[in-house]
Amino acid sequence: MNGGSGPYAGVCPRREMGSGGACGLLRRVSGPEEQRLLELLSFGLVVLGAGSALLLCFIPMPYGRYSSRRFGWLLPARPAWMLQELPSLLVPLGLAACGGAVSAAWPNRLLLGCFVVHYTHRALIFPLLIREGKPTPLFTFVLAVLFCVYNGYLQGRSISNYAEYPPGWLKDPCFITGFIGWLIGMAINIHSDHILRNLRKPGETGYKIPRGGMFEYVSGANFFGEILEWFGFALACCTAESLAFALCTLFILGSRAKQHHQWYLEKFEDYPKCRKILIPFIY
Question: Taking each helix axis from N to C terminus, what angle separates 138-157 and 32-56, rounded to the nearest 10 degrees?
Fold first, then answer.
């Protein structure tokens, strides 16, 4: 792993960008100092994830079934989710639009495409599928927006300006294995969300035990899929920034999966005792 770049950095020539506007600003700040900033932000992302996981051991994440007015005004679920996820889609696209030869390389296009595909679904499609979701507290919404801006810049800038790959990277076992992991993880995540959305029939209230798919093995099937997705992405990218995001995801979603598992055990006497928390057959 290289801080702020992919393997064999320096193989791609840069194309000059315009000197005005946002692209001109990005060109001026580009260089070793910004690479160092990305390294620090990557470290900060891991610390943020670990700290959040520790905090979640004592305070449930205030969203969904744990939503509470103690964390500010309650916002409608659909627009709140859409707006909070949009920075993770728009920021990388804006950075890529100002990129040069690095962002134009095929490995970078495909890797940025993976990130954009995920957040296109999360920001534009998933909110429309929500069935009368629980309101989102303002505090949770603001934190989510800040995180998406932070990580959108971190991943987008790394891929579009610094991660340079050798010829043949798309045939490298790291890229192929990582891409397959990303694809399978996203499919598990989407399928698990589909199961959760359809637990209740129209007009029904209350909670039910999720069954089918990866829920037969773990309580946090949707979380497992997303963690697998981002570790696959990190392997395909081979950058410090993508690894930091994967670790942050593991810390936060792992803690949330544990909360969900404990809630299910307390809520349902017939909850499957053999079902693990997050990792099939292991944890």
Answer: 150
